[in-house]
Amino acid sequence: MNDESHAFPYAQNAPAIVIAVIVLAGAILIAFIAHGMPWPVAYALPALLALCAALLPVSLLIARQWEKAVVLRFGKLRALRGAGLFLIVPFVDTVAAWIDQRIQATEFNAEQALTRDTVPTNIDAILFWQVHDAERAALEIADYRQAILRVAQTSLREMIGSSPLSALLSERKAADLKLKEEIGRKTAEWGVSAVSVEIRDVGIPTQLQDAMSRQAQAEREKAARVILGSAEAEVAHKFLEAAGTYGTNPVALQLRAMNIIYEATKERGSTILIPSSMVDSFNVSGILGMTGAVATPQPSTP
């Protein structure tokens, strides 16, 4: 349960070491000056100062800003100390745990877990959690880090078993929220809060991936055919409207025929030979005369 950075908790306690060195130097100086004086001054006082110097590194401790030290006295909870310098009674008080209260991340996964529609899946996720009650985290459970990991894995498998594959793939945010709430409900008794859960990857068998890919491709092809059919129907409807217009207006039909010929020759620069009978059928003179009659203003009668 101890924080790894406090495997040797006194090694980083520079203030206590400095004070201990100063006290020990004072003891040596007093012993040197008081040499030949009565024994309480010459021996007892330097010995007492040397003992204090030896006990200071294990009495004066430091908890960093994000830490809480769980102090036990004769095996019973004495207090939570930190952040900063604090004193304990040597051989009477012990620091049972250093609790890190920063937000921490734990990776967990579920391999070959069956969804509600019996599809085996491999899911990787990350849990962000924080100790909000250091006393309960130290006293209620032996190893809260391992317990959080096991709870997260169990909750993930439960969620997979109660959800279809389509929901896990398409409703990722809802799955994250559901998993966070479930883990937080279980770990709240230990003084640990689930901050958030993020599902990183949902893996499914290769055969199922191929089948889903073919299904998606078939659906896209179906949609493309439907769109193409709708376009064909709309074009056919427009052709019917055009045929009705051309059937009742021969001049429009002739102009359209001439436009087709023009469009066929303007880009390629080719020459098309048209039989004279086809030209007569266009009735160019009649069309031009009609156009000229429309374009030429008629004189007004007095």
Can you tag this structure with a few keywords?
302 residues; alpha+beta; Tetrahydropterin Synthase, Chain A; 3-stranded antiparallel beta sheet; elongated; disordered N terminus
Description:
The longest helix has 43 residues, at 206-248. The strands form three sheets. A three-stranded antiparallel sheet has the order 3-2-5. The protein has a three-stranded antiparallel sheet with strand order 6-7-8. It folds into four domains: 4-94, no CATH class; 104-204, Tetrahydropterin Synthase, Chain A (2-Layer Sandwich); 205-248; 250-288, no CATH class. The radius of gyration is 45 Å and the shape is elongated. Helix 1 packs antiparallel against helix 2, helix 4 packs across helix 6 (172-187) and helix 7 (206-248) packs across helix 8 (250-266). Residues 1-5, 7-11 and 287-297 have low confidence and may be disordered. Helix content is 55%, strand content 21%. The chain starts with 13 loop residues before the first helix and ends in a 7-residue tail after the last helix. It has ten helices and eight strands. It is α+β, with helices and mostly antiparallel strands.
**Number of helical stretches of at least 4 residues:** 10
Strand content: 15-25%
Output the radius of gyration.
Answer: 45 Å
List low-pLDDT spans.
Answer: 1-5, 7-11, 287-297
- Assign the structural class, choosing from mainly alpha, mainly beta, alpha/beta, alpha+beta, or little secondary structure: alpha+beta
CATH architecture of the largest domain: 2-Layer Sandwich
